[in-house]
Amino acid sequence: MDVDFVPPPPRPPPLLSPESLHHLCTHGYVGLNLPHHLTEEYDQLLATFDAFFAQPADTKRLYRPGTGLGPEHLGPPTSATNTERGYNHIDGEKEYLTLRKSMTHLPPGIYDAAAPLWHDTAHLLHRILGDIGVYLGLEPTAWDSVVADSLEPSDGVYEDKKGGGKDEKEKAKDERDEKEKAKDERDGKAVNGRQRTHPRDDPPTLLRLFRYEPGGGGAEQHRDLGLLTLCVCWGKGLQVRPQLPPQPPVESNASSQSPPPPPPPIPWLDAPRVTVMTGDTLHVLSSYRIPSAQHRVVVDPKEAAESKANDSNEKAKTEDTSPSKSRRSIVFALRSTTAGDIDLTTFGGYGTVGARELYDNIRKSRVNINANKETRAVMRAEYERVHGKGKVKEVEEAETQSGKQPKADITESMDGDNTIEGELVGVA
User: Fold this and answer.
1) What is the DSSP string of 266-334?
2) Domains identified in the chain, total number
């Protein structure tokens, strides 16, 4: 029987409904119902990381970032101030474990639970980027090149090429390999056709697991650095702020000396349990058409009151410090590559921009909300010194209330401590 040839569809079917996609692209966030298998993966990872956070403090500290900490150190070999890898604890606020694509230097059991979740979450957010591309009038594949190196986790094998016992010929070969790999990175090529398994080769995308201390811990108002963030929460605390709808023009009255009334305040809303949020890199690459999600993490007043009451009750205090009694969240931040150049014509712009340059210039003009309080204060003061601004917090709050989306500047950077990385965000 002869049948007419039917070409394949030009793209996968949309993942988000038109209403959900419009809300995401208008306000920067939207609630999401995870597929059943992914819900199970998040529950499994939660159970695994609860078991880790229940360990004694000395055991957990073995996984903090650092170098030269002795043979018992199990954390990533990087700067001790790095908040984008390994275990970190901010006294009185929160503790968190950050995984990168290499999946190395992890506590037992974490890799097996995290690797499938990384794969499925990255591909889910990639699909949503495809929907956003169509919404913007771009090709659904526009984002492929900027996320390709983040979609699959590595095998968790750490290849330490700094070990001893090598002769001069082997050392010279390693040095040549490193130079060739660095060149391939700059050119956006695969490294020797293999997955990159050394932590220093990781793209910026990360998976982070938070546990907030009962009655304390949160995150001030901020915007995320990357493209899309998926946040799954157990317990209340994450809040989002919608964008101000367009305001009708105010007719001027020459006989009146009164200024026009201020725009109505924008309320903070409790975020859905599973929330997708847009970041500054998406804001920039969309030519500022899609806003970055304004969000924060706050302490539930009821939780704070109960925690204060338990301070005088040692038994209740001990019971309530178990991980299962705390607010927890798992955050997957899909970020753009830092390898090679990004062709801006793909996104409706002109020319190209270095991927690392774009990442650094968005990153360096931010305050790291996951650093400790003292470091946050230093970074904020440095930002104010460089930009000549005196009340940064009040200025951004005023911009937000007026409905103005602060732009992520891709040409300006802050001369701060470049060893401090993290969920680097808009100055709150």
Assistant:
1) PPPEEPPSEEEEEBHHHHHHTTT-SPPPEEEE---HHHHHHHHHHTT-HHHHHHHTSGGGS-EEEEEEE
2) 1
pTM of the complete model beyond 0.85: no
Q: HSE (CB half, 13 Å, CA atoms) of 1?
A: 1
CATH number of the structural domain spanning residue 101: 2.60.120.330
Residue 404 within a domain: no
The pLDDT tens digits of the residues spanning 42-68 come to: 999 999 999 999 999 999 999 999 988
Contact 204, 226 (CB under 8 A): yes
- Does residue 160 belong to any structural domain of this protein? no
Establish if 381 belongs to a structural domain.
Answer: no
* pLDDT tens column, 225-234: 999 999 999 9
DSSP-derived secondary structure letter, 194? B
249: pLDDT confidence band, cut at 50, 70 and 90? low
Per-residue pLDDT at 341: 92
What is the rounded distance in angstroms from the CA atom of residue 232 to the CA atom of residue 350?
36
Would you place residue 391 in the very low, low, confident or very high pLDDT band (cuts 50, 70, 90)?
very low
Q: Alpha-carbon distance 117 to 106, whole Å?
A: 15
Q: Which residue has the higher pLDDT, 154 or 222?
A: 154
DSSP state of 251: P
Please report, for residues 141, 204, 343, 408, the alpha-carbon distance to residue 346 in angstroms, rounded to integers and kept in the order given.
9, 21, 6, 20
Arithmetic mean of pLDDT over the chain: 77
Phi/psi class of residue 284: alpha, beta or left (left: φ > 0; alpha: ψ in -120 to 50)?
Answer: alpha
Q: Give a yes or no: residue 380 inside a domain.
A: no
Q: Which domain, by its residues, includes 319? A: 18-155+176-244+264-339
Say which DSSP state 261 is in: P
Residue 35: alpha-carbon gap to chain centroid: 22
